[in-house]
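Good day; I would like, with your permission, to put a structural problem before you. A protein sequence and the structure tokens that stand for its backbone fold form the material at issue. I would ask you to consider whether the tokens describe a fold that such a sequence might reasonably adopt. I set the record out below, with my sincere thanks for your time.
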Amino acid sequence: MKTAGDSTNRLTVSNLEQHGEFLQRQESNTKTVPWAEKVIKDEQIHQFYSQSHQRTLERRHPQDAIRDIHLAATSISRTDPSIGSLKLFEPQQGMCLEEPLERFLTPDGCGGPDARAALREMGYSFGSMDGREERKQIAQQRAETVVKMKARERAVDSRRS
């Protein structure tokens, strides 16, 4: 059994290189799904349940729960046509190729108490696929910046030694 301290579970340069090699060995016919798309779909599901729950709280008389879910789905799909009631819950087929650091740095509206406000400040709508490519590019740029900063730190540390 592996523990949290096991080197195969840690985010190290070696493990990232192994991850990259693994991805390169994958067959070219393997379907891929951008991580940003997965994040946005998670936001849409969150939005669906939030609006469904809100409708339940607003009820004055007991109503059919399925009807409430349908109402929530139709109101959400009016705000973003890419969200459909049942289509939303279809599992995404494919593999995400982004490295763990890039996944971590992808703007995400479900990431914490201030995440939606931060997403709005960046100019992205919660649960909207419109900003998918921009979110992906931001994550790539942030990951590159972190890697460059770490390389500089290592260079400075090696000069000191």
